[in-house]
Amino acid sequence: MNNNYLGLDAGGTSTRAVVVSSDGLCRGVGKAGSGNPTSAGVDAATAAIRDAVTQAVTSANAGPVAGAALAVAGAADPGHRAAIVSALSGLVASEPVFDFDVLAAYFSGTAAPDGYVLLSGTGASAVRVEDGRLAGISDGLGWLLGDVGSGFWLGREVVRAGLAPLDGRGATTSLTGLLLDRLGIAVDDRRQGGRTATLVAATAALYAMPPLRLADFAALVFTAAGAGDQVAAGILDRAAAGLAETLAAVRTSDVEGPLVAAGSVLARQPDFAARVAPGAVLATDGLAGAAVLALRHGGELVDDEVYARVTSSLAQLTGV
Question: What distance, in Å, lies between the first and last C-alpha atoms of the chain?
Fold first, then answer.
C-alpha cells in the first residue's frame, strides 16, 4: 500500500507544506504566511499552517493523509500544539507528530541518520543528529541571548557599525550609506537635541521596527565586504568565528556523518557557507527535510534512492 504523508516546515517568514507518498514522490505543495506563534501570534500562525496544509492536500488530490510530521519553529506551548492538531482535523488521519525544525534542515541536505547541521538564518545554531534524532544542540538561544552569526546578529552589527560614525564613534564605513539608503533617509547635518537630523531619523525608524526585523539588513554586510570595506569584513570575521565555535560545541568523535549547512544566510551566501562549514552539503529547501521527517515518522525507509526521489520531485513542484 502506498500511503501519503504530510511534511510541514513552518518558520517566521513562511509556512510550507508537502504531501509525499511512501515511495518518496512529492505530490502537492502549499505555502502561507508565518507559522511561528512567537512572531505571528497563535491565531495567525495556526491559520497559516492550516492554509498551507489545505493547499498541499488539495493539489495532491490525496484526501486525508495517513500521518504528518510538523516542524514548527516556536511551537513549544502545548496549547498552541493542540490548536494546530485541531485545525488539521479532517486533513490528517492520525495525530500529527511535532519535530524539531533543525531536523528538517538537516534532512534537507542528506538522508544519513547521523551527522551535523549548522544553521544561520534569522537565528543560528548547530545540531548533532544520531539515529535520525536530535542528540546535541548549541546556541539557538534567540536574538536576545545568542544566535551568534545569524541574520539578526549580522543585521544588528550592520546597524551598529553604520550608525557609529554618525554619532562620532567608530570607523568610517560604507555601511552607513547603505543603511541610510535602505531606510530611505537623506543626509541632514542640522542638529536636533545635539544630534544630527540624520541620526535622529535613523534611530527613530529602527526603533519603530520589531527587533527581529534587524535581520533585513544582514545582506548589506556582504555587499560592503565584497567592495573591500574593512568594517564589514571584520563583522563577517566575527560571525564566522562564532559559528565555528557553535559547531565545535556539538562535534564528537563518535559521529562522523555529513555536515549540512542550512538557513537563509548560508543558502544565499555560498562563499560564506564554504568558509564557516568547509565541505558541507548546502541545503537550500527545508521542505525536503520536512518530507523526509514525515516518511520516517510513518515508518517508511528513506534510503538514498527514496531521498533522491523526494528532492527531485519537490524541485519539479516548486521550481527550486
Answer: 30
Residue 214 has pLDDT above 90, yes or no: yes
Strand partners, 29: 18
pLDDT digits (tens, 9 = 90+) for 84-111: 889 888 888 888 999 988 999 999 999 9
* Angle, vertex CA 239, rays to CA 265 and CA 10, nearest 5: 35
Do residues 173 and 165 make contact, with C-beta atoms less than 8 angstroms apart? yes
283 touches 108 (CB < 8 A): yes
pLDDT value of position 21: 95
Q: Which residues, including other chains, have CB under 8 Å from residue 79's CB and lie 6 or more apart? A: 42
- Distance, CA of 78 to CA of 88 (rounded, Å): 15
Query: According to the 3-state scheme, what is the secondary structure of 38-58?
Result: HHHCHHHHHHHHHHHHHHHHH
Instruction: Give residue for cell 486533513.
Output: 91
Q: Residue 275 has which C-alpha cell?
A: 568558509
Report the alpha-carbon distance of residue 246 to residue 135 in Å, rounded.
Answer: 15
Question: Position 159: which residue type?
Answer: V
Note the pLDDT of residue 192. 86
C-alpha cell at 243: 559559528
pLDDT at 229: 98
Q: Tell me the domains of the chain and their CATH numbers.
A: 1-108+285-320 (3.30.420.40), 113-284 (3.30.420.40)
